[in-house]
């Protein structure tokens, strides 16, 4: 009897060690994805997928979390306008609020604190990194795109990547909402084959400090021009009012301001790419 108990305890100990080792290897895999590989992933993202990631970052900041997790990416997909993932999820009655509620429930069951919404948080907060599981989902989305023969990564691929990892928080939240992973996968693939209107971004070189400096200089030049035109318009209206010329100057001022807006948007996009490549 003692021999059997000893043998049983040894078997149980070996199983525990094997389970611990498998989990350790999984965590190592999740924590150390290739930086160059992640860079290649983001270069293949569609415009809609990039918007979903940006919305995921906003959701992360709103709850005061320290990294982007899979549930934030799910919320980003649901909040994104007219993307395949959102259409599939909404067709089965799942919205961003439902997904967030289920994620909070799951996190609470695991013994962690529930997300705390941060009021009046600056939108341009410090860059937020991706969590290990979120990085893994990005890699899985690439695998899904490759299997389908696509050379881009869209919102549909991101959702398929989540469905491929049943242990991620996003997949568990969807399951708790009553979603069937197999049915969703079939519907996503069907919609991508029939009507995929996502915009594939052009490949771009890595942004650097020089790019930002050039944009800042161009913005300053346009601001100087705006100030000069404002002074010219003021002087014109004070001395000898010429409403036609004043209207023309006002149009030029508006055009310059629009150019500044586009330059600043370009800089924000470069900052976003730079942050993603360094994650």
TrEMBL record:
Gene3D superfamilies: Clp, N-terminal domain (1.10.1780.10). Keywords: Repeat. Pfam families: Clp_N. The keyword Repeat applies. Residues 42-194 form the Clp R domain. It comes from the Eukaryota. SUPFAM superfamilies: Double Clp-N motif. This is Clp R domain-containing protein. It comes from Arabidopsis lyrata subsp. lyrata (Lyre-leaved rock-cress).
């Amino acid at each position: 009897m003692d021999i059997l108990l000893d043998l049983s305890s040894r078997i149980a100990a070996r199983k525990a060690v094997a389970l611990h080792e498998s989990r350790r290897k999984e965590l190592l895999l999740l924590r150390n994805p290739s930086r160059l590989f992640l860079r290649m992933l983001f270069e293949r993202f569609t415009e809609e997928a990039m918007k979903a990631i940006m919305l995921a970052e906003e959701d992360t900041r709103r709850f005061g979390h320290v990294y982007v997790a899979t549930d934030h990416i799910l919320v980003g997909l649901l909040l994104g306008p007219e993307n395949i993932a959102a259409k599939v999820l909404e067709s089965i009655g799942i919205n961003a609020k439902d997904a967030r509620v289920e994620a909070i429930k799951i996190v609470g069951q695991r013994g962690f604190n529930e997300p705390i919404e941060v009021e009046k948080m600056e939108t341009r907060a410090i860059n937020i990194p991706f969590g290990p599981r979120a990085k893994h989902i990005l890699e899985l989305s690439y695998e899904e795109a490759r299997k389908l023969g696509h050379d881009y990564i869209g919102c549909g691929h991101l959702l398929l990547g989540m469905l491929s990892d049943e242990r991620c928080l996003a997949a568990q939240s969807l399951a708790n909402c009553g979603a069937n992973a197999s049915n969703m996968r079939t519907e996503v693939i069907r919609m991508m084959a029939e009507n995929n209107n996502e915009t594939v971004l052009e490949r771009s070189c890595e942004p650097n400090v020089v790019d930002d400096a050039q944009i800042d200089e161009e913005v300053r030049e346009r601001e100087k021009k705006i100030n000069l035109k404002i002074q010219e318009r003021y002087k014109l209206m004070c001395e000898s009012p010429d409403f036609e010329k004043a209207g023309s100057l006002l149009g030029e001022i508006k055009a310059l301001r629009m150019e500044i807006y586009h330059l600043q948007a370009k800089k924000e996009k470069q900052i976003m790419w730079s942050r993603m490549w360094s994650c």
